[in-house]
Write a structure and sequence with these properties.
Distance between the termini: 35 Å
Number of strands: 0
Structural class: mainly alpha
Strand content: under 5%
Oligomer: single chain
């Protein structure tokens, strides 16, 4: 049975898009990065709603993708924590249609 981190409920393309965006997002929080993150999260949310998945599945995918960002362990711990909190916050808001 696949582990939750493998995200079998989401398309490979959506998970790949999220992974690529998170790599950029951690390096810069400018408006372009926020927009690309929102687009990737909107795609995951659409897939979650279509498959009737709860928000916890989204959070598993986001956190798993975050943990795989190359060099994340070398990013300032506080900056990394804030960036992940923002990504999770965006994810929850988008899932519930709050943004």
């Amino acid at each position: 049975m696949p582990s939750p981190a493998q995200a079998p409920d989401f398309s490979d393309a959506a998970v790949q898009q999220l992974s690529e965006v998170l790599q950029l997002y951690v390096s810069s929080w400018d408006e372009t990065r926020r927009t690309t993150l929102r687009v990737a999260l909107e795609r995951l949310c659409a897939e979650a709603h279509a498959a009737k998945l709860g928000p916890e599945r989204l959070l598993v995918v986001v956190k798993a993708a975050w943990a795989r960002v190359p060099g994340i362990e070398r990013v300032d711990r506080e900056r990394s924590h804030v960036a992940l909190e923002r990504a999770v916050g965006h994810c929850i808001a988008l899932y519930y249609g709050e943004s």
